[in-house]
Amino acid sequence: MCVTCGDKHNSRASVKAHCRVDHGMFTCHISFCQAMFVSEGACKKHEHVHDSKSRTCKDCGQVFLHQFALQRHSVIHKSKPEFSCCRCNSSYKRKQDLTEHFRTQHKSVTFSCSQCSFMRGSLRQVRQHEYGHKPLSLQCERCGEKFTYPSRLSNHRKQCVA
Question: pTM score, two decimals?
């Protein structure tokens, strides 16, 4: 039976031919798969998901077209979320999910740190935060205390009594 118009057919091949001729649809060549597409290219791209078990998630069975997509997906099966929202208690296992949450739930333009899950609506705030990831490379010659920011070293020097 055609899932688009309900016409009854006596074979899967007949349904596929009907869908192509009457609806301009392309169907997957795998017998158990009923996926239909408006272009032959999209259908061919889909058919690759049936080619390899190596791109199937061992945890949930989801199939991916590319190995990198499977690797990116497998992160969601980790036991502990690594990325937390700075505005609410939500946490995520992938940074891109946190970014999407922030964009949709907090409805503001956001910028995120390239090193961690820190996010703000201001690029200046994020850049200032990122500077904190740099090593403590500035050192007071009097007492040996180290700093990341030149301004903090300068302020320290004014008060350093060592």
Answer: 0.33
